[in-house]
Structures are given as C-alpha cells and as structure tokens.
UniProtKB/TrEMBL annotation:
GO terms for biological process: proteolysis. Belongs to the peptidase M2 family. This is Angiotensin-converting enzyme. Disulfide bonds join C58-C70. It comes from the Eukaryota. Its EC number is 3.4.-.-. GO terms for molecular function: carboxypeptidase activity; metal ion binding; metallopeptidase activity; peptidyl-dipeptidase activity. Keywords: Carboxypeptidase, Disulfide bond, Glycoprotein, Hydrolase, Metal-binding, Metalloprotease, Protease, Signal, Zinc. Binds 1 zinc ion per subunit. GO terms for cellular component: plasma membrane. Its cofactor is Zn(2+). It comes from Dendroctonus ponderosae (Mountain pine beetle).
Length: 177
C-alpha cells in the first residue's frame, strides 16, 4: 500500500521519498486529511463558490470584457455584494447565499465562472500542448528503489486512476448533507 502511495506521488507530483520506505510504513497518514477522514469535497465547493462570488462582484461593478481582467477595486456595488453575503454568516444555508448571488438565475453551484476565468489559459494550453514538446519527469531505478517492494523492483510508475477516483468518491460521499 505504501508503494502505491509513492507511485501516485511520483506520477502526479514528481516526488520521491527522501529516505528508503517499505510497506511497513504508512506515509499517506502524514497527509492530515487521510487519517482524520477530512473530505476534500469542501475544498472543491469552496473553489467554485469563490469564482461565483467573484463573478457576481464583477457583474455588480458592471465589468465588461474577460472575467480574468475584472478589477473590483473601489467598486461600491461589488463591495455591497460581498457585504451582503458576509452579513448572512451562518444564518442561512449556503444554497440560499448562491441564490442571492445569482439573483435567482438558477441559484445553483456552478463551475461556469471558473471556466470563464481560465478560458484564455485553457486556449493557450491547448496550443502549447499541441505545438510544444512534452516536459515531465522520469524516475530511475535508484529513485524507485526508495519505496518499491524489495522483490521485483519496478522500472515504471503505474497507478490506477480508478483506485484514486474511488477513494475520492468514497471520502466525498461520507459527509454530504
């Protein structure tokens, strides 16, 4: 199990352990969220809400143009939007706050503001990924030997996306309202 953890770390982050590790170690527990069973879903929801709030503030400031160029500095209207939702505090459900933000135009959590904000970057990345060489990382046997089981050292990093997705879905489903 520990070697699977380090396979994920290497594959997705390019990180190997600083010292030799074995299956008797449980390095995933060093990530506070895993042993404390803290679901990651709240971070995803918070990120989406941040961009929805930002979009609402930009709309209130009558911003024209791309969302990533919006500047709400010194906008009383944008300040009012932020003040109104902060004033509510925990007195109302967060879904009601979204309805306030969207002025009843759907009133649902949405990724649209996030996608709109990063649209120029997305277009650039498509072009760069198509036209530029892929830059990444490779691991040598010495790196892999730090965490692979002692028998049959692997020379490639293989991790199951299904396992990763299953863990995320499991953790997310445990604390949904």
């Amino acid at each position: 199990m520990n070697s699977d953890w380090w396979n994920f770390r290497l594959r997705y982050q390019g990180i190997v352990p600083p010292t030799p590790r074995s299956e008797s170690h449980f390095d995933a527990a060093a990530k506070r969220h895993i042993p404390a069973d803290v679901p990651y879903i709240k971070y995803y929801v918070a990120l989406l809400l941040e961009f929805q709030i930002y979009k609402s503030m930009c709309d209130a400031a009558n911003h024209k143009g791309s969302l990533h160029t919006c500047d709400v500095y010194r906008s009383r209207e944008a300040g009012r939007v932020l003040s109104d939702i902060l004033r509510v505090g925990k007195a109302r459900h967060w879904k009601d706050v979204i309805k306030m933000l969207t002025k009843d135009k759907g009133g649902k959590l949405s990724a649209e503001p996030l996608l709109e904000y990063f649209q120029p970057l997305y277009i650039w990345l498509q072009s760069a990924n198509r036209d530029e060489p892929v830059i990444g990382w490779t691991a040598n046997k010495d790196d892999l030997a730090l965490y692979q089981p002692l028998v049959g050292l692997a020379t490639t990093c293989k991790a199951s996306p299904l396992l990763f997705a299953s863990v995320i879905v499991f953790l997310a489903g445990r604390n949904l309202p």
